Amino acid sequence: MLRGIYVPLITPFTIDDRVDLDTAEKLAHHVLDQGASGLVGLGTTGEVAMLSDEERAAVIETCVRVAGERNVPLILGVSGNDTRSTVAALRALPDGAAAALVPVPYFLRPSERGVIAHFEALAEASPVPLVIYHIPYRTGQQVSAATLRHLGAHPMIAGVKYAAGSVDEDAVNLLADLPTGFDVLGGDDAFISPMLALGASGGILASAHLATDQYVALVDAWRSGEAARARSLGHRLAKLSAALFAEPNPTVIKGVLHQQGLIASREVRLPLLPAGAQSIAQAMLAITG
Length: 289
Ligand SMILES: O=C(O)C1=N[C@H](C(=O)O)C[C@H](O)C1
Known about the structure:
This protein is α/β, with parallel strands linked by helices. Helix content is 46%, strand content 12%. The chain has one domain (4-227): Aldolase class I (TIM Barrel, Alpha-Beta Barrel), CATH 3.20.20. The chain contains 12 helices and 8 strands. An 8-stranded parallel β-barrel has the order 1-2-3-4-5-6-7-8, surrounded by 6 helices. Helix 4 (112-125) links the parallel strand 4 (99-103) and strand 5 (130-134). It is globular and about 45 Å long. Bound molecules: the ligand O=C(O)C1=N[C@H](C(=O)O)C[C@H](O)C1. Keywords: Amino-acid biosynthesis, Cytoplasm, Diaminopimelate biosynthesis, Lyase, Lysine biosynthesis, Schiff base. It holds the Pfam family DHDPS.
């Protein structure tokens, strides 16, 4: 069951461009102290594409240790856009991962039947449940509510991280009729409040590195039916998320964490560029709200 706020951890770097594992560990504990339900390792926010195999292994080890110590679920990102290599990556997952976050096959643009065949093959082979990462503006692949519902009936497909770039008709249709044991986590930070209002059970939100407790309170408010409180909190957090996404993720988030003294450097790796001072200042203002 996927519930609450999962924080897709950034990968902090030292000023000489090494992965700063100590800081990563502290940050993971920090967001859990603030009420996050779980962690996501090796997401887009973690700059996974720019990490070497050794760095990825070290980040995974850190995430597994923290999740174990805190007894919280760890979802690990598994990338790949062909079925064979994605199966191999799933089979190579370490012990300690509760689920794998797997994007809809990107760039190739198979048919929706191809997407179904892909995820069914992964689900049959995977040692852990899958969370489908639906993000058509990055993958170039549409997936309908009917397809997600079909996939959600598979016992090894636990949910979807839904990031369509809007609260679209498919989100409404999907949330109106979810398969048993299949959860929707919002993945577009600025739209988390309406997604929760429609019945999403939580979110995987890079924004929740900041104001984690408030994103947690937002989930709780919608779940307990406190609509007025949820609405006003949601509007405020949408502004924060917009400010944090004013430049490519996670550049602004790193800038703010650096300014708050939580990470040693705001460095990101190319082709990302560090966020500008103006974006960081605006996001700092949005935090105080
Ligand atoms: O890494 C993630 O997981 C997320 N990635 C999204 C992105 O970078 O587009 C944003 C979302 O908050 C979580």
